[in-house]
Specification:
The chain is of the alpha/beta class. It folds into two domains: about 140 residues, Aspartate Aminotransferase, domain 1 (Alpha-Beta Complex); about 230 residues, 3-Layer(aba) Sandwich (Aspartate Aminotransferase, domain 2), CATH 3.40.640. It has 13 helices and 13 strands. The two termini are about 35 Å apart.
C-alpha cells in the first residue's frame, strides 16, 4: 500500500475488482495472445458497441490517448482553435495542443460544473475547429444546445466522457452524441484496467482512418478481416493498442457493469439523502442532475462556502482517518494553460466553484459502515462549524 494511504482508514478510491480478473488474465496468457486486439479486447469493444450504440468502439492505452486520436481524427492543424472548459484534467487540453491547436477556455455552469453552453457561441472565431465537452462527474452537458451550435457553425464535437461510462443524456449514452467519444478505464474510474481507455467513433466515415491511426499507420485491421492480401504502411499513426491482459482485467467488470453501477448509486444516494437538509438550509451545495440526465455515480462532492472552509473540512476528515480530496485547479490559471490558451469572457464560476468543491470517498463495494462514518463525521463538521 502507498505509504501516504496508511494515514487513512477510509480511502478516497479503491479500484474495482469483481473476482474474475485474474482468471481472465490467465486465459489471455493461455491464448498466447497478450498484445493488442486479442480476444478480450474484441469482447470489450463489441460490448461497448452493443451496449452504447456506438458505430465503432476501440480500446486504447488510456483515456488520454483516446483524446489524442480524436484530436487527430478531427483534422486539427496548427492555428486551429478548440473550445473547452478550463475545469478539467490536463489530458483534455494536451490532446489538442499536441495536434497544434490553440485553446479557448469558457466558463462553467455552477450547478453541474460542466461547460456553460451559453458561453460557447461568443467564443467561436474563424479559427474554431472543435468543441470539446467534458461530462463532469458523469453528468451530461446540455448536448442538444451544443450540437445545435456545432451544426450552425460547421464544427466537430468531441466528448470527453472519461468519467461518464454508463451515463446517458435523453436516453443516449454519453460518448455517442458527438463525432467522437472518449472513455477512461484508469484505476480511479468506475470500470478499470489500471491504465486504459476507449474511443467511440460515431461517424462511420472515420472508422477506417481510426483503425489506421491506432495501428501505427498501417491497414493491418483490413488485412485481419481478409480485405487486403497484405498490410502496409498507408498513413501516419501511432500505437494506441491496449494489451489483451488489461482488456481481460476490464472484461471481468464490464460483464458485471450494471451491478457495479447500481452499487455505486446506492452509496451516492446515501450521501445525498444524508446531506440534503444541510443543502436545503444553504450550508452546503450538492451535485445537481438536470432533467434528462442519468448519471453513473462516478463521484459525490460537496461545495462549501469558500476555500478556507473546504480546507478545514479536508483537514478534519484526515484527523478522523478519512481521505477526502479537492479536484481540478483550473487549466487557464496553470503555466501551460497560460502558454497554450486563453480564457474567453469572464471567469465568473470556474475558479470560485473549484475552490469550494471537495470529493468524498466513492467506490464499488464500499463498506456501508465506512459510508456511515463519512456521513457521521461530515455532519459533525457541519454541526460544529459555522459554514
Amino acid at each position: 500500500m502507498n505509504e501516504a494511504y496508511k494515514t487513512y482508514d477510509i480511502l478516497f478510491n479503491v479500484p474495482p475488482f469483481t473476482g474474475n480478473e485474474f482468471k481472465y488474465m490467465q486465459e489471455a496468457v493461455d491464448n498466447q495472445k497478450i498484445c493488442g486486439d486479442g480476444p478480450f479486447t474484441k469482447k470489450c469493444d463489441e460490448w461497448m458497441e452493443k451496449r452504447f450504440g456506438a458505430k465503432k468502439a476501440m480500446l486504447t492505452t488510456s483515456g488520454s490517448s483516446a483524446l489524442d486520436m480524436a484530436a487527430l481524427l478531427c483534422g486539427i492543424e496548427p492555428g486551429d482553435e478548440v473550445i473547452l472548459p478550463s475545469y478539467t484534467f490536463s489530458s483534455t487540453a494536451n490532446a489538442f495542443v499536441l495536434a497544434g491547436a490553440g485553446l479557448v477556455f469558457v466558463d462553467i455552469r455552477p450547478d453541474t460544473m460542466n461547460m456553460d453552453e451559453t458561453k460557447i457561441e461568443e467564443a467561436i472565431t474563424d479559427k474554431t475547429k472543435v468543441i470539446c465537452v467534458v461530462h463532469y462527474a458523469g453528468v451530461a452537458c446540455d448536448m442538444d444546445a451544443i450540437m445545435s451550435i456545432a451544426a450552425r457553425h460547421g464544427l466537430m464535437v468531441v466528448e470527453d466522457a472519461a468519467q461518464a461510462v454508463m451515463s446517458t443524456y435523453k436516453g443516449r449514452a454519453l460518448g455517442t452524441i458527438g463525432d467522437f467519444g472518449c472513455f477512461s478505464f484508469h484505476e480511479t474510474k468506475n470500470y478499470s484496467m489500471g491504465e486504459g481507455g476507449a474511443i467511440l467513433i460515431n461517424n462511420e466515415k472515420y472508422i477506417e482512418r481510426a483503425e489506421i491511426l491506432r495501428e501505427k499507420g498501417t491497414n493491418r485491421s483490413k488485412f485481419y478481416r481478409g480485405q487486403v492480401a497484405k498490410y502496409n504502411w498507408v498513413d501516419f499513426g501511432d500505437s494506441y493498442l491496449q494489451s489483451d491482459l488489461n482488456a481481460a482485467y476490464l472484461w471481468a467488470q464490464l460483464e458485471r457493469a450494471d451491478e457495479i453501477n447500481n452499487n455505486r448509486l446506492e452509496t451516492w444516494n446515501s450521501y445525498m439523502d444524508a446531506f440534503k437538509s444541510y443543502a436545503d438550509s444553504g450550508k452546503i451545495t450538492l451535485p445537481a442532475v438536470p432533467d434528462g440526465c442519468v448519471h453513473n455515480a462516478h463521484m459525490f462532492y460537496i461545495k462549501f462556502a469558500d476555500l478556507e472552509t473546504r480546507q478545514n473540512y479536508i483537514a478534519f476528515m484526515k484527523q478522523n482517518r478519512i481521505m477526502c480530496v479537492f479536484h481540478y485547479v483550473p487549466l487557464h490559471s496553470a503555466p501551460a494553460g497560460l502558454k497554450f490558451g486563453r480564457f474567453n469572457g469572464t471567469d465568473e464560476y470556474t475558479t470560485a466553484e473549484s475552490d469550494r468543491l471537495v470529493r468524498l470517498p466513492m467506490y464499488y463495494n464500499m463498506d456501508k459502515k465506512d459510508t456511515e462514518k463519512v456521513i457521521e463525521k461530515t455532519i459533525e463538521f457541519l454541526e460544529e462549524h459555522d459554514v
